[in-house]
Amino acid sequence: QVQLVESGGGSVQAGGSLTLSCVASGLIFNENTMSWFRRPPGKQREMVASVDSGMSTNYGDLVKGRFTISRDNAKNTVTLQMNSLTPEDTGLYYCVAETPGIRSFGQGIQVTVSP
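-> structure tokens emitted (115 positions)
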């Protein structure tokens, strides 16, 4: 059974930084594309950033240049470094593991950015 455990969320003022981490178990980590999604209040879930098994990264337009995703295959961990946060970054952030045909979500962690 895949388990994805997020940590590092919380509250920060605009312009600040947070680092989210996700530890994965129950899967062959280095075969999965790892991503962060978020659900802003009252909006649909959106992809924030992803890193595939070859270390190629992809970012949502709203976070390019501010967020950095990385993975450590030795520790089954994916990290999202978030800088220059704005209130529009507020939301529930999910760690996601994906192989062809299978997508698993963590329970989510709250990020709140105040003006």
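The chain has no helices and eleven strands.
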